[in-house]
Amino acid sequence: MGTYGGASRMNDTAPEIEELLRRRLMALSPEERLRMAAASFDVARRIVLASFPPGLTPLEVRRRLYERLYGGPNPYERPEAAASPDANAPLPESWYPSAARSPGPGAKSANSDTER
């Protein structure tokens, strides 16, 4: 068992497998590793959002999401944030688990040959 942020975490992966995974990840380009990290974060965010009860205001969604992802309240949120005109601005459609994902850069659409 190791620690992460002061809390213990379970590790049932054999050291040789961890090393194999580390070598494979390090063989990827920095861009590929960044893309994988961003995709993983996006999935984690969608899972957390799907667990929230319906009817939360956008501000409450943002607060709860921050707390779940980072382990506590946002230290940068100012008390006047709730009174801000954009406090309850709609969240981007891509935040919602049911939102259709647009293809990434370089991806071909289903009718890309006919779009010319």
> How many helix segments?
3
The spatial strand order of the largest sheet comes to 1-2
Topology as a string of helices (H) and strands (E): EEHHH
Task: Please tell me the overall pLDDT.
Answer: 78
Number-wise, the strands total 2
User: Structural class given helices, strands, pairing?
Assistant: mainly alpha
Shape: elongated
Query: How many separate domains make up the residues?
Result: 1
Low-pLDDT parts are: 99-116
* Alpha carbon gap, first and last residue: 56 Å
How much helix, percentage-wise, in residues? 40-55%
CA radius of gyration is: 19 Å
What does this structure look like?
This protein has 3 helices and 2 strands, in the order ββααα. Residues 99-116 have low confidence and may be disordered. The protein has one domain (14-95). It has 116 residues and is mostly helical. Strands 1-2 form a two-stranded antiparallel ribbon.
Layout: helices, strands, pairs:
Layout: E1 2-4, E2 7-9, H1 15-27, H2 30-51, H3 58-70
Antiparallel strand pairs: 1-2
Helix pairs in contact: 2-3
Keywords:
two-stranded antiparallel ribbon, elongated, disordered C terminus, 116 residues, 41% helix, mainly alpha
Would you kindly provide a brief summary of this structure?
The chain is mainly alpha-helical and 116 residues long.
